[in-house]
Specification:
With 168 residues, this protein is mainly α. The protein folds into 2 domains: 36-103; 105-163, no CATH class. Helix content is 64%, strand content 12%. The protein has a 3-stranded antiparallel sheet with strand order 2-1-3, with helices on one face. Strand 1 (106-112) and strand 2 (115-120) form a beta hairpin. The chain is rod-shaped, with a radius of gyration of 55 Å. It starts with 6 loop residues before the first helix and ends in a 5-residue tail after the last strand.
Length: 168
């Protein structure tokens, strides 16, 4: 069978084949572009998931480290408070020791009619001891260093301060 095709129709068919091939090539190029974009998006999503997982791991480690450091901080604060309390207690003890050391510079000798009855750390202790032996609660007088004190044998009870490590 022989078909007769006009030149004009043949030209139109060739043009439409050419146009269809151009459109197909453009569609292939667009499909390739979409394929490339899809692969790029997939790679980006995988990298984003990996980065997210790394960030979650880093956050978990930071949370653990933070909790440990907060515990250490609390321990150090408690230790600091104890150290402050210890320093305060040591200061108090030092003050008491200094007071006792300054008081310990003298001992008080309790005399009864000039004879040594007892020795005491404080004047109050000597008075209490004398009162326990029957001395009057009133009548304790302090004699000045310049004034003449009555003789020790003339008084029933007398307290005589004696400086430690030497004479008064």
């Amino acid at each position: 069978m022989i078909a007769i095709v006009r030149t004009h129709t043949l030209r139109a068919l060739r043009d439409s084949v050419s146009e269809a091939e151009t459109k197909a090539a453009a569609a292939r190029a667009e499909a390739d572009q979409h394929q490339w974009s899809s692969e790029l998006a997939t790679d980006s999503a995988i990298r984003a998931e990996d980065a997210l997982e790394e960030q979650r791991t880093a956050l978990a480690q930071a949370t653990v480290t933070n909790a440990r450091l907060e515990g250490e901080l609390e321990t150090l604060r408690a230790q600091s408070l104890l150290d402050t309390e210890d320093r305060q207690a040591l200061r108090t003890l030092l003050r008491v020791a200094r007071k006792q050391a300054s008081r310990a510079a003298y001992v008080y000798v309790l005399l009864r009619f000039g004879e040594v009855h007892s020795v005491h750390a404080t004047r109050d202790e000597a008075e209490i001891a004398a009162e326990a032996e029957g001395a009057s609660r009133e009548g304790w007088v302090t004699h000045s260093a310049h004034g003449a004190a009555p003789a020790a044998t003339d008084t029933a009870w007398r307290i005589h301060p004696v400086k430690l490590g030497g004479t008064p």
